[in-house]
Amino acid sequence: MRKPIIVGNWKMNKTIAEAVAFIDAVDGVCHDGATYGVGAPFLALAESVKHANHLIVAAENCHFEDSGAFTGEVSVPMLEEIGVKWCIIGHSERREMFGDTDETVNKKAKRLIQAGITPIVCIGESEAQYDAGESEAVIRSQLSGSLADLCADCVKDIVIAYEPIWAIGTGKSASVEIAQQCCHIVRDQIEKMYGKEAAEAVRVQYGGSVKPENIVEYMAQPDIDGALIGGASLKADSFTDIINKTK
């Protein structure tokens, strides 16, 4: 059985004090039946890690080089030093706004795995691609590039977040049927690349306007192991509601 994993992605929200207050309010509600966590801005990571006993704390990005002339970037050794064990990479906002590609996501994944940090690898199609019937092709292409040349045992431990871009921050959400179908495509592509054992072990999240009102439906699907949650993860009460509904 794959252990469910639900992670809130705060994006560029929360000061250090706000992050600590959230974690203090939510941490004790978590239970062992699932992995719960938050992706926090870089400045809030160190204090968040210190305060989190049950929540995992993920960085929202990293660079694949350990040091160098990369102004404004944060390296994997920097994350290691403050105890970060998880990192979100390839989010659509990073791809669209900041130039992340399948190639750079692949480099980040390899460096994180080398450091023993678990990557949460995001993929997903745009609304134009969805309307053109290209969802499956985009999913398979992004996975092929982002997860190229990894070891099968490494792939078992990563998390893949399928997030249709048209459902992020728009209030729209993919129907349960569409989300399940696309997460099944993810698992099938992993099987093609790394074999059945890896495909059955890898955890696949759905992301896109997930909230307390619809989390149970998504989690009931056979290929959806969790969620990467945006807006509903910013308030302690709504995230607590999600935790309670997935016990």
Instruction: Please state roughly what percent of the residues sit in beta strands, choosing from under 5%, 5-15%, 15-25%, 25-35%, 35-45% or over 45%.
Output: 5-15%
What structural class is derived from the secondary structure elements? alpha/beta
**Tell me, what's the shape?**
globular
Number of helical elements: 12
Helix content: 40-55%
Oligomer: single chain
Q: Give the low-confidence spans.
A: none
How would you explain this protein's 3D organization?
With 247 residues, the protein is α/β, with parallel strands linked by helices. The protein is 45% helix and 15% strand. The protein is built from twelve helices and eight strands. The chain has helices spanning 16-26, 42-51, 76-81, 92-98, 102-115, 127-131, 135-146, 152-157, 176-194, 196-201, 215-219, 236-245; strands spanning 5-9, 35-40, 56-59, 86-89, 118-123, 159-162, 203-206, 226-229. The chain has an eight-stranded parallel barrel, surrounded by four helices. β3 (56-59), α3 (76-81) and β4 form a beta-alpha-beta unit. α1 (16-26) packs parallel to α2 and α5 packs across α7. The longest helix has 19 residues, at 176-194. It is globular, with a radius of gyration of 17 Å. The two termini are 15 Å apart.
